[in-house]
Amino acid sequence: MKTFKQHITEVGDYVPPSERAGLIPYHTDENGVTRIALMIPSDPRYGGSSPQIAKGGVDPGDTRKSTAQKEGEEELGYIHKSSNRLKVLWTNKRFSITYYYVQVPDMKFKKPHFETKKVVWSEINDSLKIVRDMHREVIVRLIGKLK
Questions:
Q1: Measured between alpha carbons, how far is residue 121 from residues 19, 25, 95, 100 in Å?
Q2: Number of C-alpha atoms within 13 angstroms, CB side, residue 93?
Q3: pLDDT tens-digit series, residues 13-70
Q4: For residue range 123-140, what is the model confidence (pLDDT) as tens digits?
Q5: Nearest to residue 137, comparing CAs of 78, 87, 94, 92?
C-alpha cells in the first residue's frame, strides 16, 4: 500500500496512479434527509482544502472495488468487512476513476487515516456547493441514482 508521501514527488507535485477508485457512503435519516461522507485532506497539496470524495490508487493485486473499500476505511473511517454492498456509480474514463456508493446505517465512523484532516457529513444537495469542482458531476450522478 502506498503512503501519502509516496504520492508526492520531491518538488511537491501529485503523481496520480493509473487506476483509481472512490467511495461515497450515504445515510438517509428518519426525515428523509440524505447526507454523504466527504473528506478534507490534511495536506492541501493532495486535492486542495475543499471537501472531496475518498479515493485512491489501485495497488497491484487489488480490484477497484477493494480499493474503494480500503479508501473508505482509510480516509473516512468507514469499516465494513465486505465490499459486496458497494455499488458502481460511474467510471470516469478521462481520469480512470471508478466511483462506488454504499448506504450506511448511521454516521458513526472510526477515526480516519492521517491523510484526512476532517470527515464532513454534508446534505447531498448542499455538497454540490462545497466539493472540489471535479466531484460535482459524480455527486449529481449519485443524486440521480438515489431518486
A1: 26, 10, 25, 17
A2: 0
A3: 544 558 999 999 999 999 999 999 999 999 988 888 999 999 999 998 899 999 999 9
A4: 999 999 999 988 999 999
A5: 92
Residue found by looking up cell 481520469 in the block: 95
In terms of residues, how long is the chain? Answer: 147
Asked if residue 107 lies in contact with residue 28, where contact means CB atoms within 8 angstroms, the answer is no
Please state which CATH number belongs to domain 4-146.
3.90.79.10
Q: And the C-alpha cell for 146?
A: 438515489
- 54 beta partners: 23
pLDDT of residue 80: 80
Contact indicator for 21, 98 with CB cutoff of 8 Å: yes
- What the block records as the C-alpha cell of 113 is 487515516
CA distance 66 to 91: 15
